[in-house]
Write a structure and sequence with these properties.
The chain contains nine helices and ten strands. β1 and β2 form a beta hairpin. By secondary structure, the chain is an alpha+beta fold. Strands 2-1-5-4-3 form a five-stranded antiparallel sheet, sandwiched between helices. The chain has a five-stranded antiparallel sheet with strand order 7-6-10-9-8.
């Protein structure tokens, strides 16, 4: 009471700044959550004993359980034994050295073998912040690409035909398979390391012109152009070999022709057989003509 009267006493405080601060915190939390949700990485915070203190699992991850499953558990309860032992050693190393450490591991899951890359960084007192990314798709793609490259290389190296890649700017072969040695007696280094004009010194003079015309205009040829040719070239033993081949565009960079790929087949035996048949036909034709005259 105040002077015998009942009164209500109130106080007022300006909450504007507090509300602004709370709104700022809410916005910051929303931004950070959106940022975390957009990351493809699993994020875990471990203490020195391997206990999971905090965890974030991306929405798109199918092989991980919800974050609540891991928080409060030891790493040995979250991962397969080999992986847990390996990760514990990483955590121990990071805590001792206070240095960032990158590592990778693989493990069997319900979706098959999965491959991961991870980064562990020191965070606070005896805590380690770990980012784990599933790279299975990339690993399988790289493996498939490597297998395809190996297959193509095996095909090229075991082909009975000479296969080569010619660099237009350097005016020399940058790849020749080992059939070169079988067909012409030269090693790939003997052929590739020579002066660009070495090839012309081996070619029969009557067959050079077709190549000169082709290479003069090769940079203006359409992408699907195919150059067919036959020519004679000198074997390392000095004999002449007949070759038949094709060349086509192999690599273009910004519209500029960089290289050609070619395959060459030894047709010497066929040429000799054709010559024997031609001579035989000529012989019997002469006999027939002389018989008719008689």
């Amino acid at each position: 009471k105040y002077f015998g009267k009942t009164v209500l006493i109130t106080t007022a405080r300006d909450m504007t700044e507090q509300y602004k601060a709370e709104e700022t915190l809410r916005n910051s939390y929303a931004r950070n959550k959106a940022l975390l949700d957009s990351l493809p990485d699993v994020i875990m915070v471990f203490d020195a004993t391997g206990m999971v203190l905090d965890c974030h699992i991306p929405l798109q991850e199918k092989i991980w359980k919800p974050a609540e499953h891991y928080i409060g558990k030891n790493i040995t309860d979250c991962f397969q034994p080999d992986t847990a032992t390996f990760a514990n050693n990483i955590i121990r190393t990071v805590n001792q050295t206070a240095q960032l450490t990158d590592f990778s591991y693989e493990c069997s899951t319900s979706l098959g073998m999965q491959y991961f890359e991870a980064r562990a960084v020191p965070s606070g007192s005896n805590q380690v912040l770990t980012f784990i990314r599933n790279v299975t798709a990339r690993k399988l793609s790289d493996k498939e690409l490597t297998e395809k490259e190996y297959l193509l290389k095996s095909i090229a190296e075991n082909s009975p035909n000479i296969i080569y890649i010619f660099d237009v700017e350097q005016n020399r072969n940058i790849y020749i398979n080992r059939s070169l040695s079988k067909v012409l007696g030269y090693t790939d280094s003997e052929f590739s390391d020579q002066d660009p004009g070495f090839f012309e010194t081996l070619m029969h003079p009557e067959d050079i012109e077709q190549f000169e015309k082709f290479y003069e205009q090769v940079k203006d040829c359409p992408d699907d152009f195919i150059f067919n040719f036959e020519y004679r070239i000198k074997h390392k033993n000095g004999s002449w070999r007949w070759l038949k081949g094709i060349e086509k565009v192999f690599a273009i960079d910004n519209g500029i022709l960089k290289s050609l790929i070619g395959t060459v087949q030894d047709i010497t035996a066929e040429k000799h057989a054709d010559e024997i048949i031609r001579q035989s036909e000529q012989k019997y034709r002469l006999i027939a003509e002389n018989t008719s005259d008689g």
